[in-house]
Description:
The protein is an alpha+beta fold. Helices cover 31% and strands 33% of the residues. It has eight helices and nine strands. The protein has a nine-stranded mixed sheet, with helices on both faces. It is globular, with a radius of gyration of 17 Å. The model is unreliable at 1-7 (pLDDT under 50).
Amino acid sequence: xxxxxxxxxxxxxxxxxxxxxxxxxxxxxxxxxxxxxxxxxxxxxxxxxxxxxxxxxxxxxxxxxxxxxxxxxxxxxxxxxxxxxxxxxxxxxxxxxxxxxxxxxxxxxxxxxxxxxxxxxxxxxxxxxxxxxxxxxxxxxxxxxxxxxxxxxxxxxxxxxxxxxxxxxxxxxxxxxxxxxxxxxxxxxxxxxxxxxxxxxxxxxxxxxxxxxxxxx
Length: 217
């Protein structure tokens, strides 16, 4: 029983990641917590116009889905997936304050050693390097302690800001997924982007430092 339990738990989770300093401040990743609920709900509700056009549709409306009362079950589900070894659910912190989420999901080991990565940050912190730093920290962690070989992401071609973040970290485009996800009321094309461990050139965070986009704290 102890062997089965240990084999199902991620290497590297729930270990915090970072920090990395960017123009907006000090960025860290840490596991999501139950007490994140009020800030999570406040940001998601306030930033609906900023976030909803890029996120898959859900069966319940935005207000219900992001009410404070919804967070306990969401947080519990995320952490349960982490304990099972299928996901790494992180909160993004800026100067110690919750400002978004980064998730590494569908973690597969064996011959594939792959996962997807997704993120969002509050509108108030966009443009300061927060999403770029969080993504770089997540990539280094996934291709390092979690022992993955490849991390992929999908992004709408129209989402210039997110495409720029992915490019800064070193993701390359692999192809176009036609009518891939239902987003913002229609089936939307998405670009598939990816990075493998051979493409890191040291690490994703060191790349940002070399490019003058970040500094070690």
